[in-house]
Amino acid sequence: EYQKAIDADPNYAEAHNGLGNALLKQNKIDQAIGHYRKALAVKPDYAEAHLNLGNTMFAQAKLDEAMAEYRQALDVKPGYAEAYNNLGLALANRGQVEEALAHYQKALEIQPGYTDARYNLAVILYQQVRIPEAITELRKLLDVQPEHTPALNKLAWVLATSPVKSTRNATEAVELAQRAAKLTDHRDAGS
Predict the structure, then answer these.
(1) What is the DSSP letter of 166?
(2) pLDDT band, very low/low/confident/very high, at 191 (cuts 50, 70, 90)
(3) Strand intervals (E) in the chain
(4) Cβ partners under 8 Å of residue 128, min gap 6
């Protein structure tokens, strides 16, 4: 379908982007990248194509290229919560924790119910031993999406193993872990 649209109009940026997404799902990464780049050659201010190309680069651990694409997406579309979140992930992978935190927070400022950004924020707060803040973010996420199994699992872990004694709650940790296990039919609740 996308190919037919491209055959009819080789400068149809949205069709190149859509075909890139379809090819990526088939694990045809190089072809997907080619179509994202064609979309951007035709329409340089196409934020979604920048995001998709950035995601593809991120998946290949090409963090500099991924961050450049996320930044270009944000230049074009400053309120793009997903681009802020994904740039946060790339920054976190580079060890730039404070910048990552700021990007997750910006994503949540734009879209408060964005569970991926809230989860990523909670994880990085936990890694920074900012336990009460991590717990708060996980609880906020679970208020919005009570069946978010990675958040259930992470909160259970935090409450069970927290280095901050006052935040430990073994009873609640077990209850959360059991909820996560039930939701996943006792498979890995972290995924």
Answers:
(1) G
(2) very low
(3) none
(4) 97
Angstrom distance (rounded) from CA 120 to CA 40:
28
Q: At 78, phi and psi to the nearest 5?
A: -60, -20
Amino acid at residue number 125: L
Burial track 73-102 (b if 16+ CB lie within 10 A, e otherwise): bbebbeebbbbbbbbbbbbbeeeeeeebbe
Output the CA angle 127-183-156, nearest 5 degrees: 30
pLDDT per residue as tens digits for the range 146-182: 999 999 999 999 999 998 899 999 999 999 999 999 9
How much is the pTM? 0.90
Token pair for residue 186?
A: 């006792």
